[in-house]
Amino acid sequence: MASKADHCLLDLLWRNRRGEIQMSVAMVISNHPDLADQVRAFSVPFMHVPATKDIREEAERRQLELLRGNVDLVVLARYMQILTPRFLAEVGCPIINIHHSFLPAFLGAAPYRRAKERGVKLVGATAHYVTEDLDEGPIIEQDVVRVDHRQDVQDLVRLGADVERLVLSRAVLWHCEDRIIRYENQTVVF
C-alpha cells in the first residue's frame, strides 16, 4: 500500500524484479491514483481506493476485500493513512510500515520538519510491524544518516528517502526469508 511518495514502493518493485527479494507482489493499493502508471510498468495490478477520514470505513472495507486471502504480508510503503484497529484485526496477516524517523523519536507526521527544529545530528528511518499504537510496533530495522545545521528540511527529506528505501527493503527481505521472530514488542532478526 502506498500514497503519493514513490521511492519506497519503486525500490521494492525493482529489488523484486532483480531477484533480490523473492516475493510475489499481488497488487498495490493506493489512496491516490498518482502511482498507477509506474506500478503497472512492473506488471503489477494497481488498485485505487480513495481513503480519507470521511470515507475511512468504506475504504477499509474495500481494501480488506482486496487483501483477504490474497496476501501473506502487507507493506505500507509510505502509505500516509492510519489504519484502524478493525482493519488490523481483520486483515489476517502481518503489516510492515516504514516510518520516516529513527523511532521512538518523532512519531507521527512531519518528522523531518520536527527534526530540523530540534537541531538533530542524525535522521533516519524505522521499519516496524504495525500495531494499534501508532508507530510503536516491534522494530525490525533502523538506520540513520548524519546531517548538520546547513541542511534545510528538504535536504533532510531527500537524505531520509535514501535511508527509508534501504531500511524497508531489508525488513521486507528478512520477513520474506523468515528471519524474524516477534517476541512481545520486539523482534529478533537472524
Automatic annotation (TrEMBL):
Keyword match Hydrolase: yes
Name of the top EC class for this enzyme: hydrolase
Keyword line: Hydrolase, One-carbon metabolism
GO terms for MF: formyltetrahydrofolate deformylase activity
The protein's Enzyme Commission number: 3.5.1.10
Superkingdom, taxonomy of origin: Bacteria
UniProt domain Formyl transferase N-terminal: residue ranges: 3-172
GO biological process assignments: 'de novo' IMP biosynthetic process; one-carbon metabolic process
Record InterPro entries: Formyl-FH4-Hydrolase_C, Formyl_transf_N, Formyl_transf_N_sf, PurU
PANTHER family to which the protein is assigned, alphabetical: FORMYLTETRAHYDROFOLATE DEFORMYLASE (PTHR42706), FORMYLTETRAHYDROFOLATE DEFORMYLASE 2, MITOCHONDRIAL (PTHR42706:SF1)
Name under which the protein is recorded: Formyltetrahydrofolate deformylase
